[in-house]
Automatic annotation (TrEMBL):
This is Erythromycin esterase family protein. It comes from Micromonospora carbonacea. One of its GO terms (biological process) is response to antibiotic. Pfam families: Erythro_esteras.
Amino acid sequence: MLVQRLGAPSDFDPLLDRIRGARIVMIGEATHGTHDYYRLREQLTRRLIAEQGFRFVAVEGDWPDCERVHRSVTAAPGGLADPQAALERFTRWPTWMWSNAEVARFCRWLRAWNQERPREQRAGFHGLDVYSLWESMQAIFDYLGEEEPASLEAAQEAYRCFEPYGRRIEEYGAASRFVSARCEEEVVRLLARTREQATADGPDRFSAWQNAEVVAGAERYYRAMMGGGPHSWNVRDIHMADTLDRLLDFHGPGSRGIVWAHNTHVGDARATDMAADGMVNIGQLARERHGADAVVLVGFGSYRGTVVAAPRWGSPAEEMVVPPARPGSVERRLHELLPERAVLVFGGADQPGWVTEEQDHRAVGVVYDPSFESWGNYVPTRLGERYDAFVWCDDTRGLHPLPALTSFGEMETYPAGV
């Protein structure tokens, strides 16, 4: 195991050496609301794009919202001139995950970097998630209305199937358990038609296809969500892994991609208690599909500080105190062993035993109650198996949300919130 103190972006050199040759790098976070994680992730990502030719960043966010950001950072026709304006249009709670000053800073850098390069060499910004059923449906209507009006009927049939449930789409999932309310056939027809139209080249066709995949994934997700158990989690992470694979294909042979998501999605589920519950995640799936040598998984963690989160589902975000990590946890051990900030690169014969021992590892979602620290908010983890590297910040501070257009909550990520 190699340990490098972090003080400047150049201190990531040992990790970049480990990444060299990998096709996929997943960079995690122990919370969705910590400035230090976002800032260090940005520093690492900038170097991967500028020095190693990575072609896109794919985040744990909705495809339509991130498509607006993508068009801005790539200076595509019709895209907003300021990426922050695109981020401020995020309306799904929790908006602060991506609509924050830290992401805006990165996206402004990415736009400036892209504008110095030919369009075919510009790095993109995409969403991996499955929740945006209505937004993706509208995007399909907009595309077909302009480009393929003859194909509108399939989209309209899918829309009419969901329409009785309105924006409370969880009611569709509940109804599908008891009556013949499934929209699966209509969605499959929509997906097949959009796939057929997307066989030609072009970003607009690809985006329409991806929106159809989101509609199909959302239908499965909301139906599975009502059944309980791990199935809905797996539907979501498999959808994100499939989206990542489509992006790699779309960006061309040999293209390389970066994923930004919570540790619970990035760190290999097989090295946690998630596996015993039958859960998979995108880190595990990427290793299985592409091979461990082609994938580098990077986790993040801290001992104490503050975080932006919400006390209840759908409530406004606030900055909360993250108490010192509990005894026996990864975070407590690293607090005792390491300096303020460091990066650990796992591998080799000199790994200490605690790297492969199971220990509690903190995971904070968008809903957080610090009083639960004595019994919740931790995932049993074998750190050196879950990640290829780990970025450590002893003390952290909350990020800086941008003004939100709305702050209401929806059930769509409940109860995971990560």
